[in-house]
Amino acid sequence: MKAALDILRKLLRDPAAAAGLVIVLLLVAVAVLAPLIATHPEAVWDMNPRQRLLPPSEAYFFGTDRMGADIYSRILFGARITLTIAITAVGAALLIGVPIGLVSGWRQSWLGEALMRISDIFLAVPQIVLAIAISQTLGPSIENVILALSVTYWPWFTRLVHAEVHSLRNETFIEAAIALGVPAWRIILLHVLPNVTSPIIVRTSIGMGFTILTASALGFLGLGAPPPAPEWGRMISESREFLPEAWWYALAPGLAIFLVVMGFNLLGDGLRDVLDPRIRRASTGR
Amino acid sequence: MSSIHGFAVQAPGDNLLEVENLRVSFATEHGVAKVLDGVNLTIRPGEIMGLVGESGCGKTTLANAILGILANNARREAGSIRFAGEDLLTMPRWQAESEIRGRSITFIPQDPFGSFNPLFPIRTQTMEVMKWKSPRRAARDGRGIAGFFSRYPRARRSADAAAVLQMLRTVQISKPEEAFGKLPHEFSGGQRQRLMIALALLPQPELIIADEPTTALDATIQAQILKLLKRLAKERGVSVLFTTHDLGTAYEICDRITVLYAGQEVETAPVDDFFQRPHHPYTVRLLESLPHPGRELREIGGEIPALVDPPAGCRFHPRCFRATEECLSDRPAVTPLGGGHQVRCYHPITGASRL
Amino acid sequence: MRIVALILKRLAWLVPTLAGLVAIVFFISRVIPSDPVALLAGETASLAQIELLRQKLGLDRPLIVQLLDYYRQLLSGDLGTSLFTTRPVWDDLSARLPATIELTIAAMIVAVALGIPLGVLAALYRNRFVDHFLRVFTVAGLAVASFWLALLLQLFFAMDLRWFPLQARITGFPPPSLSGFYVVDALLEGNVGRLGNVLAHLTLPALTLALPALATVVRFTRAGVLETLQRSFVMYQRAMGIPVGLIVWKYVLRNSLISTVTQIGLLFGILLAGTVVIETVFQWPGIGGYAFEAILHSDYAAVMGFTIYAGVVFGIVNLIVDIGHAVLDPREATA
Predict the structure, then answer these.
(1) For A63-87, what is the mean pLDDT?
(2) B120: closest CA among C234, C120, C2, C4?
(3) Does position B242 have pLDDT exceeding 90, yes or no?
(4) What is the ipTM for the molecules in this complex?
(5) B28 Cβ partners below 8 Å, 6+ apart?
(6) In chain A, which residues have their Cβ closer than 8 Å to the Cβ of C272?
């Protein structure tokens, strides 16, 4: 716990990282409090054809969309979707990828090699390509997006963990533990895992950013949550046919995505600098 | 100002290099480290001067200051470095880069393993030096734009290449033509230092700065390299500033020795005098700490001071067995002892040493 | 001849990796919640008729057998037939590939030609204004949704200012096709007007696509140069008075490029991923746009075909990158 507070303090000293943290917390707050801070909470489900495509005003901060719904409120509720997708997808990828990485990095056996080759298969195409294939087959919904994203993201965790474990394996203190007869699972749990935590945390934060981008791209392509769900990517896609007149329609959701991803990226960078300078070297050299 | 090459050094008694009262400090995150505190050093033409001191005493900083490659956070607080009469510290940067470094003053680094670029063959790296620093280089060859697009006439290039091959033979690299095409990692540490010696001699400099050139080598190779360097330098009348923490090495090769402690030079003497009649308490302790059959290993108690907040006056006083009040207030002035031997101490040790 | 050995080894790994990808794609496509055969048979079909159809289509056999059949089909170059265009997917994709490659290469050129010098500058002027500005720029560049940026650029430069065309590869007729790359073909044709037209159309999509790649190149180059600058050989060359510009741009760059080149595979992945949405926004007739249209029309075969096709292209590019790495670092060859 003290270590965590220490990290927090160091993190806050870096203005960029602090900004990132603030943004992320803001996102969580917005998602949680959406019904309270939205000016038009019913905007998500109701239709209001007479108010359609109105420019930004006092009543409608970001204007209205083609259904006449308040874009500002829709964005706030969209934050829930975004956050849900990001946390679940990255969390699942982590839960799949880290154990696989631990196993494959620890043993120099055929199993390790095989697992790495399997993860290579999922990296044979860019994430979005495979995610498209999966999402399209299963149908547009938030659950399928989450599934597609976690299935395509876990190899990143596996590679990371594999590399770390692999190098730790050769450290003298691990060899000593093995020589003393400590069972493998204990070594992994008590000695290896703590050392691997830092890169995992960094990768998680950055992964949230990339996941949100990919998720919104899927939404843009029509593969995300179906309407009238206020998914940010889909909102941008909807706005296309109303350009250039309804410029606000495209601007607001995009800004939301930008801000949120920026926040996670800044936070991730800051965490990387604070947690372990060794990581920085590793990510450039190897 | 024309090149220093061919510039007749003044009267025979004059010094080639004069470091006078040099003060250099570094801005670090822990404060300002006063690394060099008024250092004086002279080197005569054709002499090998040893700069002896422990790690962190400032030898490398002094070498870097002379070469003009101090880090960005370094500041010269006071003093001058006169080379053949010119103050290197006030010389314009471009002049120092093109006329002094690699030409009048060359460099042999401490780390033979990292000092060659691993991706380029020896030919490229040596001929690069020759392109800019060969004695045959003419002003017409120009600098181009940031070093690109300058001239390297074919005639000079082949003359330079021949000179390089000849020098490689001189430093005992077998089959120089083959060596040319090889990559640095194909050579051993000793061989790489020979290459460094060759590169240091090819521009026909007046002074070579050798920064602990044998520290990274095996003991048996060290002796070879030292002998080679000494012989070649003496043959050509080139001065050498040889920094080291190893007194044995200094004895092998140097004509004179200056001891540096925590950024202050404390004693200077011709080599034999230095070993037989040391005067400064630190020097005495250093010599005593050399392993000697039949005698217990002696150590100097205490530690090198942190340079952010160094001791006042003579920086050795906290560890000195002869320190008194005045040692804390002002740094002792130079006390000449005759025969080129001088010391900076209020209580120099006289009488024959125990060695 | 270590390079040849390297190529063969990589190719050997490529095959099972692609086979694995195909297996995944195959199993996914068979996991459709609703029964495709029933859909095909129509609403009025009876259960017996559906079963008959299933047998006829071979969909009642064990999955493994179907998979092997699929492999056989793929090896003969048949990626399936598009439901929408009714043409073989392979033909559709191959026809559209040059457009995507042209766009990707243009973006790659921008990313590398701008990114490497900027990265070097950021490293040389570390913690000064240039560096801070570039750091903000790169973080922002990686945070922007490319489809959104594409829309904004369209909005501003094409609709508002009318400096650039809105979409497509060319207005009017394309140059006589020799390479499939409009830029090359227009150059070969010698038609300046058409060349200008093509380049104008290429600009906005290429810039949009290049942005995340540019940001990545700047970051990696900066890190690589900073690391290289610490090394002893840099200090040695400085001490010997070699011109600083030469030290940086000839020697340091080469060493730091090694780490950048290994990222080009990553870069290409970023670019390929980006083409899907960018081609959609700019109506660029490449394979990414094809994928979008396939999604729109629920053209399952086309989407699956696209996935496998992308895998092949990606694998080949990564192979080329590995070769490039071996060439740049001669230590690999002589060690």
Answers:
(1) 87
(2) C234
(3) yes
(4) 0.89
(5) B73, B308
(6) 125-126, 129
